[in-house]
Amino acid sequence: MKVLVLGGGGREHALCWALKRSKRVDEVVCAPGNGGIASIARCEPVNVADVVGMTALVERERPDLTVVGPEVPLAVGIVDALTARGFKVFGPTQAAAQLESSKGFAKDFMARQGIPTAAYAVCATPEEVATALAKMGAPVVVKADGLAAGKGVVICQTVEEAQTEANLMLAGKVAGVAADRVVVEEFLEGPEVSFFAVSDGKRAVTLGLAQDHKRIGEGDTGPNTGGMGAYSTDTLVSPQMRDWLLLNVAQRTVDGMARDGVPFTGVLFCGIMLTPQGPKVLEFNTRFGDPETQALMLRMKSDVLDLIEWSVSGGALPRVELKPGASVCVIASSAGYPGSYQSGHPITGATTFPDWEKTVELFHSGTATRQGELVTAGGRVLGMTACGSDLKEALGRAYTSLAQVSFEGMQYRRDIGWRATVGV
């Protein structure tokens, strides 16, 4: 098979790597790809926000299957466009992707379907925000309704702060956000987990669980990022909780979308807060997470192509098997990220880390090759990913390997998995 992966980050590198390992795949193309992906797949330029450009690429390449990585192509309707032309494509339609592209849509959907989530109000004006805050109080969470590249969620300690942040979002003055609505949401407390399921539009099957680290600073301090690291273990939740999440969140979502006439296919990424009152959904994403995918793909024992093909075409439920133990991805980012940063710095040591019996992989998030030299080309640059018999072993391999890599201004958190390793 020839498989095309749309996207150019660490998630897409991990997907290309996993698909390349399938015995049924003989060619992987990635668009636009990056400096690391180019070592395992042919990279083709494309703007992933341009439906016409992406469609022309698929028409030219004629892949047996297209896998959509990021959220933007889904939100602009690439699945609809390719399906209408008879191509097989993995991911939800534009309407189904609203579970991620509109937080208001997702919250209203969860309320209708009885899926546990925080109390909320969807507001279109500062006056509506003030009314909601008067009822909810603080601390409170303010979210831009649309896609915001990780910058559209603010935890506010006071009502005044919440009003200010909401006003800025509604006025379009928050980076990456052009919100005509905001969601004012009850603040929840508890550990977070990312639950991943895959659906064929009728059934949901568990892919795995991970825990992301969104803040730039150690101890979960500083501003939010796209994700500074993630880990996946067998012990993130109990087997009973895993089954509960599949039945009461993922499958209930798939059933509800089908009843609404908007079948959901692809990856359903459920951000879960394990509160003292029970698990509640913080948000949905409608694609693989980044950097969670890097950690999950390294643990995949079964062929990920089987799972993707089932989502597209249906049939017998595929077997999803992860290696026992743990995996971790540690992100190395540019100085200044998540704010402004410079690119073009040479990267050294990106191929010299210890082999560790093939339990370590370096996935590229933002790199490019210029005049034969690997250089930085993004805020998040590299994701050192390792697995082991337990989290401690996986972390040791990842950090030992990352110590061999260097570029000017390189920064990374040294406490990925800290909640799970306290006292270990």
Could you give a quick summary of the protein structure above?
By secondary structure, the protein is an alpha+beta fold. 30% of the residues lie in helices and 28% in strands.
Kindly describe this structure.
The chain is globular. The longest helix is centred in the middle third of the chain and has 21 residues, at 239-259. With 424 residues, it is α+β, with helices and mostly antiparallel strands. It is built from 13 helices and 21 strands. The protein has helices at 10-20, 51-61, 71-75, 78-84, 98-101, 103-113, 126-136, 159-170, 239-259, 292-299, 304-313, 391-402, 418-421, and strands spanning 2-7, 27-32, 42-43, 65-68, 89-90, 120-123, 140-144, 153-156, 182-186, 192-200, 204-212, 215-217, 221-224, 229-233, 265-275, 278-285, 326-333, 360-364, 367-370, 373-376, 380-388. The protein has four domains: 2-91, Rossmann fold, CATH 3.40.50.20; 125-180, ATP-grasp fold, A domain (Dna Ligase, domain 1); 192-313, D-amino Acid Aminotransferase, Chain A, domain 1 (2-Layer Sandwich), CATH 3.30.470; 326-421, Glycinamide Ribonucleotide Synthetase, Chain A, domain 4 (Alpha-Beta Complex). Helix 1 packs parallel to helix 10 (292-299) and helix 7 (126-136) runs antiparallel to helix 8. The mean pLDDT is 94.
